[in-house]
UniProtKB/TrEMBL annotation:
It holds the Pfam family MDMPI_N. One of its GO terms (molecular function) is metal ion binding. It comes from the Bacteria. This is Uncharacterized protein (TIGR03086 family). InterPro entries: CHP03086, DinB/YfiT-like, Maleyloyr_isom, MDMPI_metal-binding. Residues 11-130 form the Mycothiol-dependent maleylpyruvate isomerase metal-binding domain.
Length: 187
């Protein structure tokens, strides 16, 4: 299961990037399902994650990276900022060792755990970005299935870490709706 997350991340980066490029010029300040973030804030979050990724994948300690990616990392051109960060991150995932240790804010874990989290983050935030900017909300079925299995197994931990809001109840059998609802979003 986790090796496939590593293989799925480059395409997930590409799908998120397509949504970034598709944001209409007048929608960057619109709200997203992530209640604290506008469209621009959401893209800033993902740019920051993908600026960090090469350091994490290289095994650098967090202290060495410091706070250089805190705050506004998209500047005046969120699309260009995304393209630069995504290109650097995307290039490294296919060759990453799934068993290799990486240091995250909550401890050292096997890279496969980081890959799982990144795939879910890219997938759910792709939906958030699409919803917030008025784009097609369709998600890749394989990424949704993978993300749903991972989220089901880890949702309580995510809530405890403050990574996601509590699940929104749903009776839908649609895997995308289940994943989005499980990650605390109203569909």
């Amino acid at each position: 299961m986790t090796t496939s997350a590593l293989l799925m991340i480059p395409e997930a980066i590409d799908r998120f990037g397509a949504r970034v490029r598709g944001v209409p010029a007048d929608r960057w300040d619109d709200p997203t399902p992530c209640t604290e973030w506008t469209v621009r804030d959401l893209v800033n979050h993902l740019v920051g994650e993908h600026l960090w990724a090469p350091h994490i994948l290289a095994g650098e300690p967090l202290e060495q990276v410091g706070n250089r990616y805190d705050g506004d990392v998209v500047g005046a051109d969120p699309v260009a900022a995304w393209e630069r960060a995504a290109a650097r991150s995307r290039a490294l995932w296919p060759a990453a060792d799934p068993a290799g240790p990486v240091q995250l804010s909550f401890g050292t874990v096997p890279l496969r755990d980081y890959a799982d989290q990144m795939l879910v983050d890219l997938t759910v935030h792709q939906w958030d970005l699409a919803r917030g900017s008025g784009q097609d909300e369709t998600l890749d079925p394989a990424a949704v299935a993978y993300g749903l299995a991972y989220a089901r197994a880890n949702v309580e931990r995510f809530i405890g870490m403050g990574v996601t809001a509590p699940p929104v109840p749903t009776t839908s059998t649609d895997p995308t709706v289940q994943l989005i609802s499980l990650c605390g979003r109203e569909v």
